[in-house]
Design brief:
The structure is a single chain. By secondary structure, the chain is of the alpha+beta class. It has one domain (9-54). It has one helix and four strands. It has one helix at 48-62, and strands spanning 9-10, 22-25, 31-35, 44-46. The chain has a four-stranded antiparallel beta sheet. The longest helix is centred in the C-terminal third of the chain and has 15 residues, at 48-62. It is globular and about 35 Å long. The relative contact order is 0.19.
Length: 63
């Protein structure tokens, strides 16, 4: 059975200063991303493979 209610958590890729934080839900068919401070701004949905590619790219920039 596929879950339909997102289980949001702060992304491990968010900064530690709480000024650039995102929340991610990976328990649904698409990976969902939203701004921690402005849930009304909308949600970005992407395929799990696209999220993995983005996260690897972002980790390389921070490295």
């Amino acid at each position: 059975m596929t879950e339909t209610v997102p289980n949001w958590h702060k992304s491990t890729y968010s900064g530690n200063t709480n000024d650039a934080c995102i929340e991610v839900a990976t328990n649904v068919p698409a990976v969902l991303v939203r701004d921690t401070k402005d849930h009304g701004a909308g949600t970005l949905a992407m395929a799990p493979a696209a999220w993995s590619a983005f996260a690897a790219y972002a980790a390389g920039l921070a490295g």
